[in-house]
Each structure stands twice: as C-alpha cells, then as structure tokens.
Amino acid sequence: MGANLVIAGAGTADGTLVDIVITGSTIDAIVPAGDAPASPERIEAAGHLVAPSFVEGHIHLDKTLLGLPFIPHIPGDTVAERIAAEKQLRRTVGLSVEERGGRLIEQIAAFGTGSIRSHVDIDTEVGLGGLHALLALRERYADLVDIQIVAFPQSGIMADPGTADLLDAALSEGANLIGGLDPAGIDRDVTGHLDTVFALAAKHGAGVDIHLHDPGPLGAFELRQIAERTIANGLEGKVAVSHAFALGAIDDFEFGRTTDLLARARVAIMTNGPGPVSMPPVKRLAVAGVTVFAGSDNIRDAWAPYGNGDLLQRAMIIGYRQGFLADEDLAHAFAMVTTIPAGVLGLKTYGLAAGNRADLILLPSPSIPEAVASVPIDRTVLKNGRVVATGGSLTPR
C-alpha cells in the first residue's frame, strides 16, 4: 500500500526539516524535506514543529463537572474534607459520568492528547459505576484517545470496608492498574493499606499508581515502603506515586535515602505543578535517577475550579513553578508531557520514528522551548494517521 498522507517540511526537536510519510495509522518513513513521494493527502507544515502527541499521566474523567453551569467551590482544607465535599456534590450532579467525561475527552483530544491514564473512584457508595462509565468511554472514543484506567480508592481501603473487594472486581472487569491513597493520612494503616494494594497488583498482574499527599518525613517513609514492596514484588518500572509532596519538604538525609530507593525500584513520580504546596524538585530528582512525569489531575471538579487539560500549558506551569528558564529545561518540561509519561504508561509504538503509530501534533513554533513558553493554540492533531483536530477544535468524526 502506498503512502496516503505526507506532512511536508515540518521541523523536529533538533531543528531538522523533514517530510513524514504516513501509511494507514503508521509512520512509514521520515525523510529530508522535499524527498517524500506523492500522496493523496498532504499537510504543508513549513514553520511548524512536529512532535508525538501529548500523554496525559494523571486525570480524573469521572470527576469533571464540564457540561454543567459553573459550580462554586465547596470549602475544605484537608484531603478528608475535600473527599466529603466531593461526595456531597456528586449526589446532586445532573449529568452522568459518561456525559461529563466525554466532554473532557473531546476537549483534551483537541489540545493534542492521544493517550490518557485516568483514575476512577471505587468505593462502597459509587461501587463500580464509574468504572463501567469509563469502560464505555474508552470504547466510544477509541478513535481519539487510548485510555488506561486506575481503580482508585478515593475514600480509602481500610476506612471503607468492602472497598478491597470492589477493587478486586474492578481489576477483573477491565481496570488496568490498582490505585491507593494516603495509607497513613486516610487509612491510618500504612502496612494494611499497602499490603492490600500490592496483593491485588500481584493477583492481577497489574501496575500500581498511588496518590500520596501525606507530608514531610511521614510521606517519605511511605515512599520508601512503596519502593520496598515494588522491589519485593518484582514490579520495578510498573509503579508510580502521584503528587508526592513530601519530596519537596524533607531534609537532605531523608531526600537521599528516599530517592535512592525510588531510583532502585524505578518508581516514577507524577506532578501537576500544584499550587501553594510543596512540589517534587524535578531536576534534583532526575539527577538522583528518579523519573518525574506530568498530568493535569483535577479539571473543573469538586477539588478545584481550575484546569482545562491542555498539557502544553501544564508543561509551562511546571516549568514556571520549577524555575525552568534555559532551553534544555523547557525541553525537559515538554518531555514530561510526551516521551517521559509514554515510558511510564508503557506505550510501545510511541514517538517520532518510522514504524511507530502516527499519533502526532503540529505546533506553529520553530522550537520546543518556544512552544512551551508561548503555548500556541493553533495546533493540528493526528491520531492513528488521521487528522482529528485543528485550531483547538475537533474535526468531524
């Protein structure tokens, strides 16, 4: 079969001008600009940067309130208070998870995201309802995004008896990973919580992604416990910890012994560049051998009224918060929403290379650092070799 699409004259990360030859859903070849064969379709990309599509490392499709009138934020200063506020709100929401989550998928796909890791609440109140909605969304929007699902015990495991059995069922019914939440702060039982999470991971051959907000030395202790269990269960490279605020608020001794274990266990850390809380120090962790990737986390939900799911904007926010000024630092921020989370999610045919899937984005910028600094919205997005969005809007499906 001959090429059916050529992206002509695009610039790569190193400034090389290339033609990208696409056959079906695959990048067939990347050749010097002007060398591509004739094809039925052609995108003139002079002056544009081409990159692999964005990878959303942490989102909550079931929580968003998109599609509803703006809802004022319900106060709550602690994680437990926020959980209670969310439960109160979700009992009154008039749109289904599928309707709200679908709107969010369409929005982030238009921004250039092609792969997602979404957490979904599993507890004794909602049961597996959210999971079933996300499974339906995964099928409905397979032409726009690939979705990994984390079975997430938002109300705790030990604190919400019966949740462990629901998590087990969720993994049997299609969830890809097992989640966890603040073993000390919510469940007040670090050993019981982590033993349950890792036992379920072992039973189902699943990866692990744990929310950890617990601060300071307590959070660092929990990180070491997670790393030790990761090694003991042979799960190196298959475990992530989301948020890990503790890494930004511990002394050098605690930091050193914690990152040594995290690096040995290949436990990755997700950050969304949070507001007025401590943040994992990205470059310091990279030097220590710890992978740090990015995600949007909450988008217009009971936890925060902010967020839009634009991962290029998220890279800018992280760079701003971390004091990223040099070109190489801005490029690292871009990698945190592309190649780094692709590795964490285990995406096998991702990247700008022949033989990989044609999940691509064209940005009207001459370089990655400029794209991160300016966050242009005029983008062309391809999924499986098909243009799915231009100028921030989806094309007809």
Instruction: Strand order, main sheet: write it out.
Output: 6-7-8-9-10-11-12-13
How many E-type strands? 17
Give the termini separation. Answer: 24 Å
N to C succession of SSEs: EEEEEEHHEHEHEHEHEHEHEHHHEHEEE
Average predicted local confidence, pLDDT: 96
Radius of gyration based on Cα positions: 21 Å
Q: Tell me the β content.
A: 15-25%
Q: Sum up the overall morphology in one term.
A: globular
Features:
12 helices, eight-stranded parallel sheet, five-stranded antiparallel sheet, 17 strands, 397 residues, alpha/beta
What does this protein look like?
With 397 residues, the protein is of the alpha/beta class. α4 (163-172) packs parallel to α5 (190-204), α6 (216-232) runs parallel beside α7 and α9 (311-322) packs across α12. α8 (282-287) links the parallel β12 and β13 (292-294). It is 34% helix and 22% strand. 51% of the residues are buried. The mean pLDDT is 96. The strands form 3 sheets. Strands 6-7-8-9-10-11-12-13 form an 8-stranded parallel sheet, with helices on both faces. The two termini are 24 Å apart. It is built from 12 helices and 17 strands. The chain has helices at residues 79-90, 97-111, 129-140, 163-172, 190-204, 216-232, 252-265, 282-287, 311-322, 327-335, 339-345, 368-374, and strands at residues 5-11, 17-23, 26-32, 41-44, 49-52, 54-59, 113-121, 146-152, 177-181, 207-212, 239-243, 268-271, 292-294, 360-363, 380-383, 386-390, 393-394.
